[in-house]
Amino acid sequence: MAQNLYGPGVRMGNWNEDIYLEEERMKDFLEKREKGQLLIQRNRRLKENLLRPMQLSITEDGYLRCGDKVMLVNPDYPETEADLVLGGDLSLCMTLDEIKSPLSDQLEVPCGLSAAQTKIPVGRNTFIILSADRNAMGQVLRYGQNFCLATTGGFEDRMLYLSSDHRTLLRSSKRSWLQEVFLTDEASYLNCWQAAFLDPQLRLECEGCPVPANAKIILNHSQTNRGLAAHRHLFLSGCFGKEVEVAAHTHLDSHRVEKPRNHWMLVTGNPRRDSSTMLDVPKTPADDDRAPEQDARAPEQDARVLEQDARVPGQGADPGGQ
To answer: Can you give the pTM of this predicted structure?
Structure first.
């Protein structure tokens, strides 16, 4: 009668082959780790470049020039059309594809865009002003002039241009289904933008005038004539936190005036401190948007005070005349 001579510690099957496969996997892992080819290492290098601190250009005369490094900021405003919005000053930022970005340490073209609550200039939100022919470096930027906005994303050998194109069935923004805004490395007329004066009644008079830095303007796409807009109520999920959608669409109110969604500022560096922007500088009463309203209400308030003093005995009148 046969007896079972195999104990629980006896290896059965292709155990020798499994050991060799495990050793080969370990050798391949160690080799990739030494060369920095692991997916986590590639993703870490990509994020380090995108979050690399950048230095913005400092303007001496208050005007923008071709070659300046700026941030595109949508200023804060009270949103009344939606309940849940992302408040504060939002800067235009480069986004990563959640599927393609972990597989490479280079930027995948075309890249998406979003608006995030960050005031620190880094690789993903710093843009360079370029002329349409890419040659007029140092020239003053003017209203109605075609220019390009490019970013390196923290990489030294890459230049991506802010672009847009007509909406199609295959290409549109993710949440609003409006005209898409993206970054591409192909130089074409789709990269051209124009700066328009904020007040439409003075827009024609300001045509050809220099564009001031850190002032509210309208950015229109040259080919489609659509304004760059930040949708604070349309949130996007990404690897950098809570961000909102950016699209090319002109939002007009009942007076045919662009809404604050289309208001942008080309923010420059602060000469007082390093690695800071002009957003850190406190506003003066002349720069405050509510200053004209307060100045207009001041005479009415003074008249009310004088009227109240005249009604109260012993105040606002000459004691000898009573």
So the answer is: 0.79
